[in-house]
Amino acid sequence: MYKVFVNDKPIIVTSSQNNENNFPIYLLKNTVKEEIIYKLKNENISGVNLYTPDLDTGWQFFVNSFDVVSAAGGLVLNDKKEVLFIFRNGVWDLPKGRIEKGETNEKAAVREVEEECGIANLSLVKPIITTYHTYYQDGLKLKETFWFLMTSDFNGTLIPQLEEGITEVVFKDETAIQKAFKNTYENIQLVYDTYLKM
Asked: Residue 68 — very low, low, confident or very high, per pLDDT cuts 50/70/90?
């Protein structure tokens, strides 16, 4: 299955007919994405399931109906296994940004973390997950973000990239992470939960 978040509510594209989450089920091929997004934003539902008998074909059909923006970012661990967080536009987040033309996902992820956090000595360990969410900017966009596990032994001062709306950069321990998750995005929680299962 694939999860696409609309204001932290999931659209689940699935080939399973088991409705374990009790979300309404719609046939993917019969849905109009704008109607589904409207329902998630304006009706009292927590998410929707879009059923397709062939997951790969259905997912491509769904993705092709959007203008897709690709980004990459990192979950960065220090020597104490604390996680690097940024505070952007009043919400705790992980560093990430758009992939530039001709850039690999890995290079973009490292560059964005370095730029947004003023950090160095990053080592890319492995991919974690790809997340998806919708937003409006000159029309409806689907952002796909490729997340990577990274480590760093950087001991200098972390510098937030203020022009990107980032006002704080900090490594957080487990207690601080759980507190931050009271003011974060579902995608960020998903990245962290996937990392914990690795």
From this structure: very high
**Which single residue is written with the structure tokens 């979950």?**
75
Residue 25 identity: I
Three-state secondary-structure class, residue 97: strand
State if pTM tops 0.70: yes
Six token digits for residue 183? 């003011």
**Mean pLDDT value across residues 79-103:** 97
> Kind and range of the H or E element at 37?
helix 33-42
Question: How far is it, in rounded angstroms, from Cα 60 to Cα 65?
Answer: 9
Q: Do you know the residue count of the chain?
A: 198
> Rounded CA gap, 8 and 60, in Å?
22
Question: How many angstroms separate the CA atoms of 128 and 195, rounded?
Answer: 6
Structural domains counted in the chain: 2
Angstrom CA distances, 9 to 134, 185, 192, stand at: 10, 10, 18
The pLDDT assigned to 17 comes to: 86
Q: Tell me the CATH number at 81.
A: 3.90.79.10
- The answer on pLDDT for 167 being more than 90 is yes
Let me know whether 110 and 36 are in one domain. Answer: no
Provide the domain limits for residue 176: 68-197
